[in-house]
Design a protein that fits this description.
A hairpin with a 6-residue loop joins strand 9 and strand 10. By secondary structure, the protein is mainly beta. It is built from no helices and 13 strands. The protein folds into 2 domains: about 80 residues, Immunoglobulins (Immunoglobulin-like); about 80 residues, Immunoglobulins (Immunoglobulin-like), CATH 2.60.40.10. The strands form 4 sheets. The protein has a 4-stranded antiparallel beta sheet, with no helix packed on it. Strands 10-9-12-13 form a 4-stranded antiparallel beta sheet, with no helix packed on it. The radius of gyration is 24 Å and the shape is rod-shaped. The two termini are about 45 Å apart.
Length: about 170
């Protein structure tokens, strides 16, 4: 999502603000919200349901009690929060019937956890096999089981999930 803020007009008869957004800076604007005047100095509008990293352009105009409108504000650019980067440098160390897997966390400071994935053997795709709060995971493998190919994703505080890391083939 993108949150837009602006200073309220000083005129006492302003009843609200039309807010428009566009994928382009110069045209294609469409109204997405009318924000009623609140008597405060700062106004806000939030456009939700954007794709991670999506860029939008915004403009605002005031409307008074007689439905007269101001000129459009200058166009402002906003960008939804991008996905976190994927973990990197996966490593695994065999420890008896288990593998101790570790990785380098992405540079984002708001990572809250990780998902560990195993590649499906007969079909394309991945199965989630576990979660981790830190940048390591212990995977138990039966003595007769073939070790999987694994990958890890990072989850941030807004529940955005990174792409999968480079796969790592576990070997005994």
């Amino acid at each position: 999502m993108v949150t837009l803020t602006w200073q309220a007009n000083p005129e006492p008869d302003i009843n609200g603000y039309r807010v428009e957004s566009s994928k382009r800076a110069t045209d294609g604007f469409r109204e997405f919200m009318f924000v009623p005047a609140s008597g405060g100095a700062t106004m806000t509008a939030t456009e939700a349901s954007l794709e991670p990293g999506e860029v939008r352009y915004y403009r605002v105009r005031a409307r008074d009690n007689e439905r007269l409108e101001s000129e459009w504000s200058a166009v402002a650019e906003g960008m939804a929060k991008p996905l976190p980067e994927a973990p990197s440098a996966l490593q695994a160390e065999a420890a008896g019937q288990a593998f101790l897997i570790s990785w380098q966390p992405p540079p984002q400071s708001d990572i809250t956890g990780y998902r560990v994935w195993a590649q499906k053997r007969l079909m394309f795709g991945w199965d989630q096999i576990g979660t981790a709060a830190q940048n390591n995971y212990r995977l138990e493998i039966g003595a007769d089981d073939r070790p999987p190919v694994i990958a890890v994703t990072a989850i941030d505080q807004d529940q955005l999930e990174s792409e999968k890391s480079e796969p790592l083939k576990l070997t005994r």
